[in-house]
Design a protein that fits this description.
By secondary structure, the chain is an alpha+beta fold. The protein contains 17 helices and 17 strands. The strands form six sheets. Strands 1, 2, 3, 4, 5 and 6 form a six-stranded antiparallel sheet that branches. Strands 16-13-17 form a three-stranded antiparallel sheet. A hairpin with a 7-residue loop joins strand 5 and strand 6.
Length: 430
């Protein structure tokens, strides 16, 4: 939010001077004013009306409580006193306010007013008293419109109009990996424009909360890097959420936020509307949604070490009317469920290093030293398939089952079968 807007110039007799300010007495106070200013203008005047070599640059500085954005302009001309006219429109924000979008407004405002001054002496010809006249009105309308509507359109004269919009500044999207599953939070079909990027148009139909990033790239027949950029763009604008790959072999457990769900009846009702199946097991339409207390009890039954498959079997009667995927997804989206990932570590692998063999044959040889750097391995008694060779690099405890299955394009059951060939495998859940 903008705290104040002011217009300052270099006066040939008084030096840097504030001519107009909104609100009044926010930057410099009059003799009759009893309110304190946001900052002491004379202390920072050499930043707001600087030397000519520092003009035409974005200048931002902070006081203890406020940030000031300015883009001073110096127009040399023999028609001005001292052969130059120096002015500055500045915005005052709270010190903690993200200012990237406001910097754009400052630059555009300075550029437009520079053009108006060069064309018609719009600024220097204004002889209005301080805090009156057309420049003061411009500051007043700009402050009110940007704070209330984040945009402003102000007619300057018959041929010029000031159009300014505050575009929101979002944090960068989180890192994307092939095993992430995007879920739309808006109706993407309603937002689609035929003129959008071709990759984006091919990707959108496959964003359903089920397909992973890699699956979307394959289904869209598009390069994965381009698909990732398209998804990043949607994430940046808040159109998507990222989920884990859903499987009945996955493990979920409540977080500390489960207490919020237990005490929030509206959230329970929202959950019931989202997870209740439209038809019962016998094909009859259900007239009522699942009770909130029943959902609370089911969420509290999830725990470490309990797979979704086992959970559904234990509560078969209660889960008849519930969409299991939506049941889990709702908890993850609201933050009171978290995924317990599984990682594999080789404890006693059925493989030996080529280095060990070479060192036994030729201790201290050049070949042994090269292998020491490269850490080459040779498989023993596990076959020579490329899949087994690729699997080996994921068995260091740093790659989740989701990542391994996505990269190797195998199911979790196939992964477990392959892991048995590696001897003593330790599976860690965290």
């Amino acid at each position: 939010m903008i705290k104040a807007i002011f217009f300052s110039v270099f006066d040939v007799s008084q030096g840097p001077k504030v001519l107009h300010q909104v609100p009044a007495d926010s930057v410099t106070s009059s003799a009759l004013s009893t309110s304190s200013t946001l900052f002491h203008f004379p202390t920072y005047s050499h930043y707001l009306i600087p030397r000519p070599d520092l003009c035409s640059r974005l200048i931002t500085f902070t006081t203890r409580t406020h940030r000031i954005l300015s883009h001073p302009i110096c127009l040399p001309s023999s028609s001005y006193p001292r052969n130059a006219y120096t002015f500055s429109f500045a915005l005052v924000l709270a010190a903690t306010t993200p200012f990237a979008s406001y910097a754009t407004v400052t630059l555009k405002l300075a550029s437009l007013l520079k053009t108006l001054e060069e064309q018609s002496r719009f600024l220097s010809s204004d002889q209005s008293a301080p805090n009156t006249g057309k420049i003061y009105a411009l500051c007043e309308i700009l402050l009110e419109d940007l704070n209330n509507y984040s945009e402003s359109m102000i007619p300057i004269d018959d041929t010029n109009t000031l159009n300014i919009k505050l575009f929101p500044s979002y944090p960068p999207p989180p890192p994307l990996f092939p095993y992430h599953v995007p879920l739309s939070t808006v109706d993407l079909a309603a937002l689609t424009d035929p003129n959008w990027d071709l990759t984006m148009l091919r990707v959108l139909p496959h964003i359903d909360g089920v397909n992973s990033m890699k699956q979307i790239a394959l289904l869209a027949d598009a390069d994965y890097k381009l698909v990732r950029k398209a998804i990043e763009h949607l994430l940046y604008h808040g159109c998507l959420l990222l989920l884990d790959i859903f499987s009945f072999g996955a493990i979920y457990a409540p977080t500390a936020e489960i207490g919020t769900f237990v005490g929030d009846k509206e959230m329970q009702e929202e959950c019931a509307q989202y997870v209740t199946l439209p038809f019962g097991r016998l094909g009859r339409a259900e007239e009522e949604t699942v009770a909130g207390n029943q959902l609370v009890e089911l969420y509290l039954r999830l725990r470490q070490g309990l797979m979704v498959k086992s959970f559904c079997m234990e509560h078969e009667e209660s889960m008849k009317r519930i969409d299991v995927r939506r049941f889990i997804t709702f908890g993850v989206i609201k933050g009171f469920l978290y995924r317990v990932h599984r990682y594999a570590i080789v404890a006693s692998p059925k493989r030996v290093r080529k280095l060990d063999t070479e060192q036994r044959r030729n201790p201290g040889s050049v070949e042994a030293e090269d292998m020491l750097r490269q850490e080459e391995y040779v498989d023993v008694d596990i076959g020579s398939s490329s899949r087994m060779s690729e699997l080996g690099k994921f068995l260091d405890g740093r790659h989740s089952f989701d990542e391994i299955c996505t990269e190797l394009m195998i199911s979790e059951r196939e992964l477990m079968v392959s892991l048995k060939a590696w001897g003593d495998i330790q599976i860690i859940c965290r």
